[in-house]
């Protein structure tokens, strides 16, 4: 059960307004800076992000159809603001993984309860 659209709408209006102030420097969070596919406008989306040896992984708790995911995939990358640094990432790859191997063990278990199986892999430039 990926989180429902109404939760996504609430988070966009309420939760993200708080997270946008801490996501760029708090451990485990990042701000995804991406351009709209149609509008060309710059957007900033707070996400939970996990480091990997070659880059980062983001669990897609709202599924792969979120606009920010589509924008990053269309551009083949984005800028992550993490711990106060701008990090260019490319090679955006959507991965469906029932075992959630890209995630740390405790996170795997929590995502299993939410039935999350889709992830976005981002490679450092």
Automatic annotation (TrEMBL):
For this protein, the record's InterPro entries field holds: F420H2_quin_Rdtase, Split_barrel_FMN-bd
Q: What is this protein called?
A: Nitroreductase family deazaflavin-dependent oxidoreductase
